[in-house]
Amino acid sequence: MAKNDKINDFVVRFANVNGTGSASANFLFTKAIFRMGIPVTPKNIFPSNIQGLPTWYEVRVSEKGYLGRREGVDLMVAVNPQSMLKDVKDVREGGYFLYDSSKRLHDEFMREDINYIGIPLMQMCNEAYTDARQRQLFKNVVYVGALAALLDIEFNVLEDLLSEQFKGKEKLIPSNVKALKLGIDYIHANYKYPLEFRVERRDLIKDKILMEGNAACGLGAVYAGATVAAWYPITPSTSVVEAFMDYSDEFRVDKITGKRNVAIVQAEDELAAIGMVIGANWNGARSFTATSGPGVSLMNEFLGLAYFAEIPTVLVDVQRTGPSTGMPTRTQQSDIMEAAYASHGDTKHVLLFPSTPQECFDSMLDAFDLSEGLQTPVIVMTDLDLGMNDHVSPPITFDDKREYKRGKVLDAVALEKIEKFGRYLDIDKDGITYRTLPGTHPTKGSFFTRGTSRDEYATYTEDSAAYQRNMDRLIRKWDTAKTMVPAPQVYQKKNESNNGILFFGTSQYAAEEAMDVLKSEKIIVDAIRLKSFPFTKEVVAFINSHDKVFVIEQNRDAQMRSLLMIEMDADPKKLISVLNYDGMPITADNILNQVKINLSTKETVNKVAEKKPVVAKVPTKKAVKKAVVKPARPAGGKVVKKAIKKAAPKKAAKKVLAKKKVAPKKVIKKAVAKKKVAKKIASKKIVKKVAPKKAAKKVIAKKKVVKKVVAKKGNKKKATKKRK
Amino acid sequence: MTYIRPKFRHPELQKNKLGYTVDHYEGALSTLCAGCGHDSISAGIIQAAYEMNIEPHKLAKLSGIGCSSKTPAYFLSNSHGFNSVHGRMPSVATGANLANRDLIYFGVSGDGDTASIGMGQFVHVIRRGLNMTYIVMNNGCYGLTKGQDSATADQGSKNKSGNVNLFESIDLASLAIELGATFVAQSFSGDKAQLVPLIKAAMNHPGFAFINVISPCVTFNNNLGSTKSYDYVREHVEATATVDFVPQMKEISVEYGKGTHKQVVMHDGSVIQLHKLAEEWDPLDRQSAMNAVLNSKAKNEILTGLLYVNPDAHDLHHMINTSDVPLNTLGKDVLCPGSEMLVDINAGLR
Question: I need a surface site. Which of A111, A174, A180, B148 has the fewest CB within 10 A?
Answer without folding.
Answer: A174
